[in-house]
Amino acid sequence: MFLVGLLDGQVVACVMAGFEGHRGWLNYLAVAPEHQRQGRARAMVAEAERLLRAAGCPKINLQVRTSNQGVIDFYRRLGYSVDEVVSMGKRLEHDEKAA
After folding, report:
1. Is the Cβ–Cβ distance between 24 and 57 less than 8 Å?
2. CA distance 52 to 37
3. pLDDT of amino acid 99
4. Using CA atoms, how far apart are residues 36 and 62, in angstroms rounded to an integer?
5. 27: which of 7, 8, 16, 75 fits an S-S bond (Cβ 3.0–4.6 Å)?
6. Is 79 left (phi over 0), alpha (psi -120 to 50) or beta?
7. Alpha-carbon distance 16 to 23, whole Å?
8. What pLDDT digit, counting tens, does each position of 25-75 carry?
């Protein structure tokens, strides 16, 4: 699912949500800088959660870089907590921007 927040016909927020039958995922939540701290991100997450719940999703996962404390704090305020798991990845292409 791709959720898009519009204001006066302009995109001001978006989030990607998915459910693979076992758990849901939230990815790429973003709000335009001039529209941040107005509840838009919270509203996007709430709508994604509503749609995932309606699809039968029992749990939502998301990933945040450990260095991004502000976003971690945001999700904690929404009731998310750190799971005791190891996130693993394998880079297939060199990307200097990726950490």
Report:
1. yes
2. 24
3. 56
4. 20
5. 16
6. left
7. 14
8. 999 999 999 999 999 999 999 999 999 999 999 999 999 999 999 999 999
pTM (2 d.p.): 0.88
Amino acid in position 28: Y
Contacts of 57 (CB under 8 A, 6+ apart): 19, 23, 24
Domain ranges of the chain: 2-77
- CA separation for the pair 25, 33 (Å, rounded): 24
Tokens of 86: 């190891």
Give the contacts of 56 (CB within 8 A, at least 6 positions apart): 19
Amino acid letter, residue 95: D
Predicted pLDDT of residue 94? 83
Are the C-beta atoms of 30 and 63 separated by less than 8 Å?
Answer: no
Architecture of the domain whose range is 2-77:
3-Layer(aba) Sandwich (3.40)
